[in-house]
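Example record for the data management plan.
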Amino acid sequence: MAGLLSLLLVGACDNNDRMAAGAETDDPQYRRGQQLLKEGRNQEALAAFLKAIDRRNGDAPESHLEAGLLYQQFKDPVAAIYHYRRYLQAAPNSRQADLVRQRQDAAMREFARMLPAQPFENQTARFELMEKIDELQRENQQLKDQIAAMNQGASGVAASPGAAPPPTGMRVPPFSAAPSAARPATPTRAPAAATPGPARPGPGRTHVVAQGETLYKIAQRYYGSGSRWPEILEANRDQLKNENSVRAGMALRIP
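Corresponding structural encoding:
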């Protein structure tokens, strides 16, 4: 708690950094979040900062910082790490940057302790292994892009004889086999037209990442709230090391 108050105090005194934030500090939701913090209504303050982030399409470093501090206070280290990183991406040289990095490291250690049946001493090796996995994923990105293109454009087309199987860990929806000439295809009822509306996840639903998409934007599309991105991250730990590991062409599971 002392670290939280220290960060807030430095943030209040750092006029240069506040000026760099520009219009964000004039955002009604940001100002409301600050007022709610003073009143001790932290849950409502968090909701206000997240609204400010949504209104500014994620370009809200000060709101990211406040959200990260509150998430860490609420014992949600994964969400806290995300918002700390977004702040550091936008303001890597601010006066608060070193303190924010310390808070981020503390959140990572807290998350490591939450992992079941894993001694804390082994978590450093675990993170190093995740780094190596991330490198391998980048090297295989071209192949994954090709498979993603097949997923999007080859539905209903018979698989070519002798085609190479997808690499281990990749989920490729089965192709529809062409009806045999000797046995006519069984008539099927035409599917009902889809009702327009926002995307809704279902069992086994996947999302192919488009260029420039982030977990925040994907969560906003499927859940109506970008702050639920950690759910998608946890469901795809076999592919994603962290929220910055998202690459165009990845086929992500939507829980």
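Summary line stored alongside the record: Residues 2-114 form a domain with the Serine Threonine Protein Phosphatase 5, Tetratricopeptide repeat fold (CATH 1.25.40.10).
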